């Protein structure tokens, strides 16, 4: 069997983007390793920013990882960079913020894990970092370089099909006119760029359990957050909506449509 390393910026990112794939691979007998760059100690939550929130979110991450069948959880040890109101880099970020980490040093930390695990595959994010969070963009940069250093043969960019996302957002905007549709027009990846469409409906309960593990991220601010709203979706609809996970593997022929992370054209 093979080893897959899933590299994420903060606790809960794994539940949103790759949980079904992780559960599937673990079920198939592959070794699944979850690596996070930060503890997410500056995330929006009812707990104040800092070590207490970071410890709580790492505890949640371990519960999520157990639900998905992960063999190991690793934290690289960088500070959560936070997010400015305009979606850019926060000015009050900590000195050890992941976004400010030296690229080669951070990539080497991750490469050490890849080498130790003899990883066959690593997942990162797309170049835009999905919706543009600075730490997510840094995951792309660091993960790409780490794979080069370690010689990891398969690099998959975890993403969302933008075409389908925009259809859903435009429909939702009919009921919520304040929804900013334009903010999604450059998010994630267009359908034509996606190379892997992984059916994870069989593992929807594990994915839902992973989301539910991150209780600190279901509330905060003005009320329910995205994660909290997702968990309120009735299970049959949840299974349909979140039953596919998408990835981009660079260098494959245009129009490639694969169904498993380890598939090749």
Automatic annotation (TrEMBL):
GO molecular function, one term: hydrolase activity
Entry EC number(s): 3.5.1.-
EC supergroup of this enzyme: hydrolase
UniProt keyword list: Hydrolase, Zinc
Protein name in UniProt: PIG-L deacetylase family protein
Entry annotated with the keyword Hydrolase: yes
UniProt key word Hydrolase: yes
Provenance organism: Sphaerimonospora cavernae
InterPro entries associated with the record: GlcNAc_PI_deacetylase-related, LmbE-like_dom_sf
